[in-house]
Each structure stands twice: as structure tokens, then as C-alpha cells.
Amino acid sequence: MYFTATMEISSLLEAALEHLKAVDTAVNQITKRDPQILNQPHLQAILQQFYDTYTEAKERLEHPTFRIATIGTTSSGKSTLVNALIGRRIAPIEAQQMSAGILRIHHSLQNRLVINPTIGWQNLTDEDIYSKIKECMTRYHERKKVESDLPFPEIEVYCPILPVIDRLKIGLPESVNIEILDLPGLESINDQKNLKLIQDTIKGCFSIVTINYQETDSDKQETLLKELKDIVEWFGGDPKMMIFILNKIDSRTSEDDSIEKRIQNLKAQIQTTLGLGTPPEIIPMTALFLYYAQLIHAYSESAYQLDILENLLHDCANIFTREEKYNEEIANFYDDLRRKSRRKTALTSEESKKLLDYALNISGSKIFWQTLSKYCQSSFRQSVLAPILLDFINKSKNLQAEIGTALEIKRKISIEEIEEEKQEIETKQKEIQKKIEETFEEFSNKLNQLSNVMISKSTETEKRSKIKELRLPEQCQGNVTKTIDFPSEVKTDLSIEILSPVNQYLRGSRNYDSHSLPKSYDNLRQILQPHLFNRVLQNCQNLSEVIDKSIDILINVLDADDNTKNQIINQVEEAIEGAIIVLNFDIEEACQERTRFLIQAHRSTLENFANSYSQITLDNLIHKINEILPQLSIAERIKTSIEAARSYPNVDDLLKNLSIAKRISIRISNLKDTGEAAAGGAFLAGMTGALLGLIFGLTTAGVGAVIGFGLGAAAGSSIDRDNRIKEIKDLKLTIINKLYGNWESSLGASEFNNKVVEAITRWVTAIIDDLRERIQETVKQVSETSIEYLDSQRHEIEQKRQKNEDELDYLNQQNNLIIDNLTKLKKIAGVESV
Fold it and tell me: What's the DSSP call for residue 286?
């Protein structure tokens, strides 16, 4: 099986390289035979692009790399699996979150470590590498607590890795390099730039996703599936190039469902959650057992082996306990291992090999390697060959169309044909430009209609029905549907991840200090940059303290005269207003920062939408061009050039050109964007004034009318003192509820949804407009260069014709000389009549 698979992959690589070189040879033969064929500057640039992509593709085909990325849900043992995968102790394993940044592991017979990429060490032991990586990651986690916009550490490790040493493991030929990537979990990523780095890294990788068995019971499954969905969508991996590892199955209890039943349920849930066409591959496994067994075998008869053996007997005891009930041979071997450990006697090579064989069967690792091998081979085209060849193919098609046009024109043999073709090109170019305008105008209008549907107050079902009426192609419908859901997903996220934790903290702030924050606030710490989180926390505490002090002051002046009360109320009002305004600006910034992160996280959804929309626009245009283009020499070249003019959408442009602070915001109702906010604002004036007016039973000067309480600004004689004190003490909760409700209503308002949709629409419109300009320029350039081809051919024909005429004149002259001289000879001979 291995040899068949490796031969197939080797044959693919050889065939790809052979055809690659054949294209290069053909291009060289053409340019050598006719150096003038591509001598225009525009064509020279296209030719150079071809040579550049050829050189890169050839290098990558001669030294291909298969990349395996490991990602995982919380506490799923991902780094343990990485170490088991490479057969070494390299990736740090800790009880708490340790992974930080990107750890790339390459095969090399000599150990080497490079960090970020200026610091490097050679000839290190595995333990040295492990310690330095752990130190780097620990330092990053510590710095991340206080530093903002801290870039991920990028770590490169070079060491012998198991799938290269033993090619049977994943069935790839020796010519293929293997790279293992250990990527951080979601909890380590709280900024858009680092998320983008992860997305760019994982592109084209085959992925192994680890899931913690302990999180798959019915109580925790919903949280697990949400995290899994976020990992797959936010990282941008391709589910078709993934296998899932259900790790830590040794933690299963006798009360649990069978592994088979648990996996079947999980397959169905993941298929639904990720929208997969078929159930995913899920492999039950105990990576820790395999990891220990591989290390023990790698360090046979060494002192270090005993430490690992002791860890295995302690951490994996339940595995042996369960297996020895049914297998006496394993029971006896388990006794031998414990005896060896007690006596500090290292295992022989035969014993460590026996342990590894047991581990492969008991831990589920044998199935893991077989499944990984199957998927590595089946995904080789998509993960290795396609990324190498796609750019070369596109550049070659562009060059081939140019050469085809030149050769077609060279077949013109008369000036009449050439002039007729030139006239046809000039006429058709105007028609094509008109079609470009019509097509892009049509699809710009459809985009605006689509935007209007998305921002309408219709139900989701009604929106989907209206979108169908636009008759967009099927490949675009799914992406549109996902994009429709994006604004509501942003609102839900901001509410759960930012507003709710702040509200919870404010409600119980007297019970918290910086060392005992509510769990939701820990989550808030993870998603915000340190400087912003600290500001939010500080200003929450400040608001809470201001309200608490205000309550004490108000109670103390309850029996004072009205003038004193008015003075105190004005002071209290200003203090509370000021504290709310400062906190509100922080909340707004936090929501803006999170929104940027979510745009990056949903990069795949947004880019697929923009990409599919630009593609259907192009398809429609090419269809119209086919209808109006005759069998011109430039017909295929125009269509190829239009495809080449297309650029792939990048959400970076959406983030660069979008001023979130001005377009997506969470604001207190009626609070102005100008410096007037510092003076208070209508919302706070009405709210605070109404509350204090109610409590004190008097009209507070400059504060405003009572709102929402059903009471006018009357004297408070009807309210006894005890009730007033109770109302004052309830002031904090009332303000917090009102403030939280206002934030939530700001998110729920259609204005927020509209601004998100408008931002996306502007981005796609800019893509479409840019595409239109580039296509117009491309068509113009193709037409002009084609006319230059025709003029060149006409000049060549005229030169040939002139050369022929000169030759004929000369021959005719010589012929006339013959006649003249013959006449004279006849005269001399006296035979003029002959």
C-alpha cells in the first residue's frame, strides 16, 4: 500500500515537473525562432512574469513540502499530540494554556532552534529546545498581560521527526518534505493582526483538530461545538482537509455512553455545526500514552527513560488497569514495568518496542496513523500541487493568449485583410466597453438592492425570499446568506463578550477586587488588549465608587434645606455623568476593537461573498462578449486578459479603509459626538435628574424632566423618609440597568446593523469598481497592442512587397538590356527582320 501510494505521488510530481518544463521549452523555442514576437514592453512584462512563476514553481516541485497544522479546543492535549506526531519532546506541555504563537517543526538530522527569526541556537538537546520554547512562550504570556499589540513569537525548530524517519507512517515519498505546525488556541488570540497571521499560515495546510473527550458530554457539548465552529471559521481552515481527534478517551467512566455512540453523536453534531456535506472523520485516541511510549522507545537504556516511564505509569495507570482485566499478557507486562521503575532499571530496546506496540493498539494510535496516511495522500493535490501550480498556470494562459494572437495575425497575407481586422477591432472595442459599463452598472445596482434587503426590517425568512428574487447564481446564494447573518453575529458577540461582563461587574463591584474578578471578566481580559481592559476595569470601579459615594452623600443631606439639596444634587449629577461618559468611551473603543477582530475572524465568509459576487459579474460580462465578438484574432486574448485582470478580495482592504470609530459604534442615546459630551448630554440629564427628582421629591435645576417613572417634579411630601432612603440605595442598580439597557438598545438598533452592512457594501463596491477600471484598461490595452501587431504585420508585408517590386524592376531592367542589345546585334548583323 505504501509503495503504491508513494509511486502515485512521485508520478504526479514527475509529470507536473515534466509538463512545467515542456511549457518553458515551448516558450523559449517561440521567442528564439521569432525574437520580435513579444518585443513590446507590455508583452515583455508578461513574459518576465511567466519566467518568475516558472522558476518558483520548478523549485517548489523539486522540493515539495507537505504541511500539517495542529489546532485544538481548550485543554484538548494538542501539544501532546504534536509531540506524539514528531516522536520527540519539543512542544511545551503544561496544565494551563502554554501554546503561544506559531511553532514550526522541520525535519533535520541536526537540532536547531530559531526564534523570531533573529535568535538562533545549534546543536541543542531536545530538553534544551523544550526549555527555551517554554521560556519564550511563558515570557510572551506574561508580557501580553501588560503590553498591547504584542506580535506572536514565531519559532522554528529543526530536528529529526518521526514521519520523515519512518516514511510508512503517512505514506509520502522521500522527495516530499514534511512540516508540522503547532498553532495556538483561540484563547491566546485577542487581536486582528495575530489572527491574520494564523489565517495566512494555515492556508493550504492539512489540519488535525483535537477535541477533549471530557468536553463532549451533553452539558458541555454546546460550548465545545461553538468553540470548534469558531476555530474552523476564524482560522480559515478547509474542513475537507481536516481530521478530528477525540483525545483523552482514557478519562471515560463506566457511566458514560460507549465510545462508538459518543463519536456517532459528535459526528452528527459537527456535521451540522460546520455545514459539512458528509460526517467528519473522528478518531478516538489517548495521545499522552503514545507520546510517553514513543519517548521511552527513543531513549532506550538511558537514565532519562526512567523519568518518562515513571510519568507513564502515573499518568496512564487507568489505561493499564482497564486493559489488564481482559488481557493477562498486558497485566504481566504492566507488572514488569512497575518493577523496573521501582528498581530504577531502564527498559531494553525489545521491551520499549513492546511497549510502543501496545501503545499503538491500546491508545488508538494505529488507526490514527492509518487515517492520517490516507488523508495525506488523498489531499496531496489540493494541499501541495494546486498551490504550487495555480499561479504558473494563470500566468502561462495569459502569455499563451498573447502568443496566439501574434501568430494568428502573422497569418494575414494581405493589407486588405489587416485593415479590415483593424477596423473590426476598433469597432468591437467600443461595443465591449459599452458592455462593460452595462454589466457593471447592472451588478452594482443588484448589490445596492442586496444591501437594501440586508438592512431592511424584514424577517430572516423574508430577506432570503427577497434575495432569491434578485436571481443571483447559485454559487453566490450561500455566501450572501452567510453575509446576511454577520451583523447579528457581531451584535450577539459584543453583547455576550463585552456588555454582559461589564454589567455583571458593575452590579457586584463591591464584592470584587483585581484578584477576584467574575469569570466573565476573565473572558473579557482575554479578548481585549491589556491597556484597554485595564481602562475598562478602572473606569468600572470608578463609576461604582462615584455612585456609592453619591448615595452616602445623598442620604446625609436628606433632611437639608432645598438649596443645599440642589447644590449637592448638581454635584452628584456631574460626578455620575462624568464617570459614565468616560466608561462609555472605553466601552465604545472595546466594541470597535472587537468588531475589527470579528471582521478578520469572518474573513473567509466576507471574502467568499466578495469573490463570488465579482466572479458572477465577470461570468456575465464574458458571456456578453462572446455574443458580440466574431472570430477575431483577439477574441480569446480579451477573455483571458479579463480573467487575469481580476484580483482576489482581501478583508485587509475592508479594515484599512473602514474607520470603525466613525462608522460602527456603541453610543449613549442622544449623546453627541462632539466635546459637548463632556458637559453631560440629554440622556444622562434626563435619567439622573429623573431619579434624583423622584427620590427627593423636588425639581433638580438644569437636569430635566422626570422620565419613565410616572411622577412629576413635585414636592416629596407624600414619600416618607424610609422610602426615600430605600430609593437612594436603589439608585446604583437603577443607573446600571439603565446604562446597560441603553448599550443593548444601541446594539439592537437598526442603525448598527445598517452601518455594518454599508461598510461591507462599500468594500465590495470598491472591489467591483476597481475591477471595472482594470478590465476597461485591459480591453483597451489588448486592442491597442493587437493593432500594433497588425501594423507590424502590414509593415512586414509592405517591406516584402517593396522588396519584390525592386527585384522585379531589376529583373525587368536586365530583361530590357537583353532586348536592347539583341536589337543592336541584329542591326550589326543586318538581320533586323529576324
Answer: -
Residue 628 burial (CB count, 10 A): 12
DSSP code of residue 714 = -
Q: For the beta carbon of residue 200, count every other beta carbon within 10 angstroms.
A: 11
* Residue count (the chain): 834
Position 161 pLDDT exceeds 90: yes
Q: Which residue has the cell 473567509?
A: 604
Q: Which residues have CB under 8 Å from 802's CB, separation 6+?
A: none
CB 383 within 8 A of CB 204: yes
Q: CB burial class (10 A; 0-12, 13-18, 19+) of residue 651?
A: buried
* Burial class of residue 260 in the structure, from the number of CB atoms within 10 Å of its CB (0-12 exposed, 13-18 middle, 19+ buried): exposed
Of 333, 453, 418, 513, give the one whose Cα is nearest residue 789: 418
Instruction: Enter the C-alpha cell of residue 179.
Output: 512540516
User: What is the distance between the alpha carbons of residues 576 and 554, in angstroms, rounded to a whole number?
Assistant: 13
| Alpha carbons 286 and 360: distance in angstroms, whole number | 10
Nearest 5°: phi and psi at 642? -65, -45
Distances from the Cα of 344 to the Cαs of 303, 336, 347, 352, in angstroms? 9, 12, 10, 15
The 3-state DSSP composition of the chain as helix, strand, coil percent (nearest 5) reads 70, 5, 25
CA distances from 554 to 283, 545, 652 (A): 65, 14, 52
Name the residue type at position 90: I
Which residue pairs, CB below 8 angstroms and at least 24 apart, start in 270-278? 270/225, 270/228, 270/244, 273/225, 273/228, 273/229, 274/228, 274/229, 274/232, 274/239, 276/239
CA distance 302 to 242: 37
Q: Show Cβ contacts of residue 466 under 8 Å, excluding neighbours closer than 6 positions.
A: 453, 456, 458
DSSP notation for 320-349: HHHHHTT-HHHHHHHHHHHHHHHHT-PPPH
| Edge-to-edge strands, sheet with 119-122 | 119-122, 112-115, 154-159, 102-107, 177-182, 65-72, 206-212, 242-247, 282-285
Under 8 Å between Cβ of 544 and 506 = yes
C-alpha cell at 495: 453583547
> Cell digits for 275?
455545514
**Tens of pLDDT, residues 480-525:** 878 888 888 888 889 888 999 898 888 875 555 555 556 667 788 8
Q: Would you say 294 and 257 are in contact if contact means Cβ atoms under 8 Å apart?
A: no
Q: Which residue has the higher pLDDT, 827 or 69?
A: 69
- Range 718-748 burial, b when 16+ CB lie within 10 A, else e: ebeeeebeebbeebbebbbebbbebbbebbe
Confidence of residue 408 (pLDDT cuts 50, 70, 90): confident
Distance CA 51, CA 57 (A): 10
Grid cell in block for residue 770: 476597481
DSSP H helices in 179-248: 192-202, 221-235
The whole-angstrom distance between residue 360's C-alpha and the CA centroid of its chain comes to 35
pTM: 0.82
In sequence order, the 6+-apart residues with CB closer than 8 A to the CB of 12 are 380, 381, 385
**Is the pLDDT score of 749 beyond 80?**
no
Q: Beta 102-107 vs 112-115: how paired, if at all?
A: unpaired
Give CA separation, 65 vs 116, 157, 687, in Å: 21, 16, 64
Name the nearest CA neighbour of 421 among 434, 412, 432, 430: 412
